[in-house]
Amino acid sequence: MVYKLNKIIGSEKTVKNEMVTLEFNGEYSVKVYPNSINEKSETLYFIARDNFSKYLFIICRSKEGDFLDFLGDEIKNLDSHEEVFVKRCPLTSENSRKLQKRFEFTNPILLGKQNSFGFGDRLGLANPAHIKSLAGSDFKPIIAQQSIRELTRTNRHPSEVMSAAVWAVFQEGYKEGFGSDADHLKTIEDIDLMISNGFTMFTFDPGDHVVNEAGSESIESLSQMAEEMKWEDLNDSFLNMLGRYQDKKYVFDNGLEFTPSKEETLRAVIKYGRAIAHIHKLYKHMIKNYDSRPFEVEISIDETDSVTSPFEHFFIVSELNRLEVKMVSLAPRFIGAFEKGIDYIGDLKLFKQEYIKHLAIAKHFNSYKLSLHSGSDKFSVYKIIGKLNGWYTHVKTAGTSYLEALKVIATKNISLFRKILDFSRAEYMKEKESYHVSADINMVKAESEYSDSELLELFSQNDARQVLHVTFGKVLTEKDNTGEYLFRNEFLKCIKENEELHYKFIYEHFRKHLSPFEVNSKN
Ligand code: ZN
310 with 459, same domain? Predict the structure, then answer.
């Protein structure tokens, strides 16, 4: 009976992945995610929900192999017509590592420079809906993705991020390949931690080494700073470097050309020289220690104050090429403001003009895609990039999925949301420090001043979005004086109990993100 499961439900695999009830001899029943059903070596594997807890079920004819290997408990009292054994295994990191050995498609792959979309999932519950949202898109998903900063803020271990992604691809039966992004790494220790947890893409963030003031320093002081640079870290000398760029003419597509003067060259060197040396150091560490493992690198300089000019973009990539640092993706600091959780702020015409220049440079090198960080909710920018359709794109999002989860709370557990709102207002001024946001806290009132329906409208108000967005870490980890979580348990319970609504919100939200890029592929 149970073995027929594969044939009965197996044909009903859909994008919706609507659950099917499976009864074990009338005594015990669970809801199966049909897309998760896999059969291998006479053993059946699938994910099912027992009330609101999910498990991997393993069904086989004899107690050996994976039946013994996976951790869990045996379910008794089965169909008397067919002798089979059933094991129910919790969705832990330990079991997900075993699953990765059994099913190749649950391991992250390298995505190279093809279009990709990064879905950070800070709760570990949104990834299945992220996968659903990709239907019809040519973007490859980066499903396991979290920065060191966000790992710290949520008290999460990288193994949990990877594990959530593994269970999500298995639940959805997603076999097209996914990426895993160890985001915003600043040190060698960060790299070691993430690679030992199975991550394959490494986003180097040399932002602390970028000299933002280089644009305003006098030539004299720039020359002085250049003399004092540690040129050996760059396998270079001041004079050699000047000789490579000063007064050289560079011509690109779309009529872009530049002939950097000594001053422009100096400013670029001072602004990014130390950052390039830092990237080189991190990259050498990877080559030396992990050469036998598959990895790819993104360089992100997006979290700096000053904008990356087209010449600086060209300079950085030329220098990284000279140092044989290979990357698949570059996140420049684009013009305008890319704040968390809201649309682009700035002159869209100017953005387009500048973006076209960055495109021309990326095309010239032909080895990496352009990456858009803080990519959540930048709908007006997607429209431009989608229409241009000029090059490969990576979009990185994270916190916006948390806001969608919070919207579920505001719909289904209003009293909890009211408490979170007041808590977030109180924490905002402190929590906003390490984020690029501009919300006016005075625009977000105390919960008591909103009706229930007004609470939901907060999700389309920029100030409220940012206040709720940057305080996620505190909301998810704060404990009261008895050591109990203030919100966490109730929060997660509400999301699990309303999985369909949560998936619906996430799905619709990311369709809005992805559809502007599908304009061209459909024509
Ligand atoms: Zn970033």
Answer: no
